[in-house]
Amino acid sequence: MNTIWQLAFIGESFEYEVEQTVHQSRMGDVIMNLDVMKSLLEIFEQSSSIFIQRLILQKLRDAFYQDSTNYSRSKSVKLFEYLFQKFQHLDQEIQWTILDLLSALALDGHRLGDEFQLYCGLLEVSSPRSVLIVVHHMIEQIRRAPVCKGYFHAAGLMSTLSDFLNYVPSQHPFYDALYEAPKERTLSLNVLLNYSRFKGEYFQNRPHEELIEHDLESSTSGWDLLADISTQGDRSKVEPELLSILQQVFVSILNLITEMIDNHPENQAVFINCNGPTRAHKFLLDKSQRFACLKIFRKLSLMPNVVEWKLMEGLVRVMQVGGNEENLLEAVRCLQPNILELRLHLCQAVREMMVSNPRAKDSFLKFGGIDWLQQLINNMTEQVEKNSPEKTVDAAIVDQVFQLIVHALRTISVVLTDNKEAQT
Fold first, then answer.
1. Are 17 and 59 in contact (CB under 8 A)?
2. Who's near 6: CB < 8 A, 6+ residues apart?
3. Tell me: the pLDDT tens digits for 207-221?
4. DSSP category for residue 86
5. Which residues lie below 8 Å from residue 96, measured CB to CB, with a gap of 6+?
6. What is the per-residue pLDDT across 136-150, written as a single tens digit (0 to 9) for each?
7. Cα(123)–Cα(112) distance, rounded to whole angstroms?
8. CA 110, CA 99: separation in Å to the nearest integer?
């Protein structure tokens, strides 16, 4: 392999486009024979050895680092177009190595518009395992080099992510890939459970049984992952592994959206214009997605030129209906534990949004937020008092009701503070 690779540096000089944006100018052995590089890629394709594939990628990375012009010289080979076409069929270690090679070139300052277009296209493959790896790598990339948000913006990533929110899991190709292909399910679980890079804020490195937060007995009329995929068969037979993978895929997408819109007005505008906030509402109804989704709304509430009502109207509506669009009177009287919890979490989030952006108070007031919270408090208090002699309301629910009343009153207090219109 070393002997073959040395031939890449022997030959006659040829013309190539010089990039002026490369951060560091390094001078070393330059690639002179692109046919050798193409031959190595053919070996990469034909080999089933992870060792051989890793060695070839390392040789390429070393060459690109050795002389800062080498990647520019080899662009006609279309390296990443070749690698990304095969991406979802490669071992996860090789997938990470390819993405890290792209990161190294981006950090070096190369113009990678076409490469990032292909990179974003990886989110459209039918492999949940590959998408989990790509999304996590994108989050790493943005945190390491925020300038990459510009690359992603130009590549149309925000539109792709917004379109992703149109799906519920059973309608996405991921469902079939996991349900029908045990190997893909195993590989996806391996990524979630064993890979050291999936630790920390965005990915939980713990047994899949602990990732499942659904309670089959307490599901409500609101949309949730378990109810959705159960349309394919018996609810009791839905596999926990499949659920945990689906949850993490969608949470990862929501977290990537949060990173993309953070301090980036162009990405924020694309997300809002794509109707992203409305598409995200259904994820609030499921606890496993809720907190990742609420981070998106908190980021949007900090926008200097945000149109608050576009955010607040939807959040108030979700708080009111709790998944029951057909009967608002029944919804406001609902004492089901997960609906109470949903409303408590939304009260907290809305309150934080109004504190960070006082203009949101007027929007909350405009869409009947205060009137509805007062109605909610009265209804819950009345039901608890009416049923307390017979003790038909569980003590845990009474405690939840009390907590929700406290947060509802705090939310009303925030709206009224320094707001003469609300006080009247």
1. no
2. none
3. 333 333 333 233 333
4. T
5. 133, 137, 197
6. 999 999 998 888 898
7. 18
8. 15
